[in-house]
Every structure is written in C-alpha cells, then in structure tokens.
Amino acid sequence: AKERGRNGVRFFNQQMQAEVSARTELATGLRQAMAQQQFVLHFQPQIQGDTTVGAEVLLRWQHPDKGLVAPGLFIPVAESSGQILQIGRWVLQQACMQLAEWARHSDTASWYLAVNVSARQLHDVHFVDEVKKALRDNGAIAENLVLELTESQLLQDIDTVIHKMQQLTALGVRFSLDDFGTGYSSLSYLKRLPLSQLKIDRSFVRDILTDANDKAIIKTILALGQSLELAVIAEGVETEPQYQKLLQLGCQQFQGYLFGKPVALAEFAKAQLGSFTQ
Ligand code: C2E
Ligand code: CA
Ligand code: CA
Ligand code: CA
C-alpha cells in the first residue's frame, strides 16, 4: 500500500508538471503569436428582421502547425498569464479599424461590432482609456461599438465597473450582458448597470423545443428585457424551428449558425453584401 501511495504521489506530480509545462509552452506560444501577428478575427452576423445589424468579433489563433485554434483553448491561459490585456487591446484596435473602414461605405455605416471583454481587461485600471484610444486611433464611431461582458465579471468591484461603464456609455459605447441566465445576476443590480442588451445563453436556446424549463427561462429573460427596456438577443440559433419558437416568444435579435457561422473578414463581407469588397 505504501508502495502504491508513493507511486500515486509521483504520478500526481508528473501530471501536474505536465500541465504546468503545457501552460508555460502555451504562454510562450501566445507571446510569439502576438509578435508574429498570428491572431485573426472572425465575424458572426447578428440579425434583426431580415437584415444584418452587426457582428460579434471572435478571436482565432492561426497557428503555424496546429491550424486555426479556437479561443476556448488559449484564452483561459492568456487570462491567467495576463497576456489577455495585450491580446484584448489588439482585438479592440482591430475591431475599431474595421468599424472605421465600414463607416466609409454608406451601406455598412450602421453596422456595429460586438467585442468580448475579459474580466482581466474590465478590471484593469486602463480599460476606459484603452477603449477610448482604440476609437480615437482608428476614427471609429463609439455608437458602432458594443462590449460584451459576462455576469461573473460583474460580481467583483461592482461600483468601479459601473463607473467605467458609465464613462463609456456617455461616449456612445453600448454594453451587452453575455451568457445571460447562467450566472448569478440579481435583479436589483441588473437595474443599476448601464446595459443596452441581454444575450440569452445558447444552452437555453439549444433545448428550447424540448425543455420546458429552458423555454420558461427564455420567456423570463424576454420579459425582463422588456421591463428594463433592454434589447434581447438569442445566441446559438441553429435551426429554423428554434428560430420560429423564439420569434413567437417575442425575441427580435438573433445570432447562430442558422444565419451564419463565424468567418474571416473577406468571407463575412462577401456573404453579407455581395458588392462589398474589402
Ligand atoms: P461567446 O462569447 O459565448 O461566443 C459565442 C460562441 O458560440 C463562439 O465560440 C461561437 O463560434 C459559438 N457559436 C455561435 N453560433 C453558434 C451556434 O449556432 N451553435 C453553436 N454550437 N455555437 C455557436 P468561439 O468562437 O469558439 O468562442 C468561444 C468563447 O471564447 C467566446 O464565447 C468568448 O467567451 C471567448 N472569446 C472569443 N473571442 C474573444 C475575444 O476576442 N476576447 C475574449 N476575452 N474572449 C473571446
Ligand atoms: Ca460573446
Ligand atoms: Ca455561452
Ligand atoms: Ca455567449
């Protein structure tokens, strides 16, 4: 038993060591990715009626060996290493550059981009200045920028966060509460936040036709949106029946594979506007 115990400990240590070195390797890879400009943005349309009103910006890592790496595989490491600050700054700059470019084409001038903001970024003291700088550096219009926050980010230091949101709201930037329904939002503080949109988490959309609880949650979110005068968007809409059910419940904004997968800029522009080249 003693023997096994020692082996168990050794195995555990080896496993921990492997995890630590995998993370270190990833952090090194991310540094190179920044330096060698291996990050790319994908764009996924957001729909209202039969028009594209905007797009969510989704980060990808074009890795020289591994191909396109999804953000779920590297953002957690970038968060804990702090590299997300630099990466997030780059995402904001790129998004604002794209907004300014679109603003020069009249038919896309009102499109907005929704950018995901990590907890680390939001709680950073320079956050407000960096958003302002990205808008100013690129000549982008604040009204065309939406920032997506998640509920868990708002649990900590809420007064400071509200103050930051107010400063950006005053410029015209809007805020959307992502993955809504999965967190711990209490209605009392939801009212205090200068939000313009709630984003129904895709886990509720997925089973809307078969799970009465999920349908009830979606109904509640839509009612909440109405009473707080917030737009509500459903994410992860994959099928026509899901879409029809959401419409029937009163949802007006949509995002999901049914309308378009996240794609690189050229493909997005081509799909959304035949004549639009960039
Ligand atoms: P999220 O903000 O909840 O983004 C939505 C995710 O759902 C995206 O995954 C998108 O590709 C996926 N999705 C969209 N439509 C559908 C659908 O119809 N069905 C299904 N099954 N999935 C759909 P993705 O691109 O892998 O991003 C994962 C997460 O990584 C995002 O979740 C977000 O939390 C984070 N992320 C992505 N880009 C950034 C970024 O620039 N900065 C930060 N901080 N986080 C980012
Ligand atoms: Ca999001
Ligand atoms: Ca989600
Ligand atoms: Ca989401």
UniProtKB/TrEMBL annotation:
Transmembrane segments: none annotated. Residues 23-276 form the EAL domain. It comes from the Bacteria. This is EAL domain-containing protein. It comes from Rheinheimera muenzenbergensis. The chain holds residues 570 to 847 of 848 of the full protein.
